[in-house]
Amino acid sequence: MIHLILALLPLVIVLACLLILKFSALKTGIITFTILAILVLINTPYQITFYKVVESSVNGILISSIAAYVIFFGVLLFHLMNESGKIQDISTQIKLLTNDQVLQVIILVVCISPLIESTSGFGTAFLVITPILMSLEINHYKAACIGILSLLAVPWGGFSYRYCYWD
Q: Could you give the residue ranges of the DSSP H alpha helices within 42-152?
């Protein structure tokens, strides 16, 4: 029973900090990490040494920094496109191609999203495609759902090879 409680403790701490105490994600992460690191170092059934906690923490920071590095430039790409008006320009060009909203969505999801995803990765295509969908006057909820669907393996796998290895 103690193993189940210890296994659920991180989830309970995160949910309590985010939903009940309304802490930010950063503050929640720091609190959760601190509580669990102390708990693990106390005599628990897991018998983890201080060295292993430090090693795992450094490993987690390094892996997270790689993802944060890529996501940062994806967010930067979105802001550059938004401030320069390119999102509206892309939306206008797609409207000039066709008035059919279904075809507009297909163009974005099957062609443009894999291009952006293959060049930047980590879901940054969602950051670019969703505002374009909203500027095409698609409901915000539907635009978010379509943006997530654009990250599926089918369009990405079918077209990203051509974008990455074009001869």
A: 50-84, 86-97, 101-106, 113-120, 124-135, 140-149
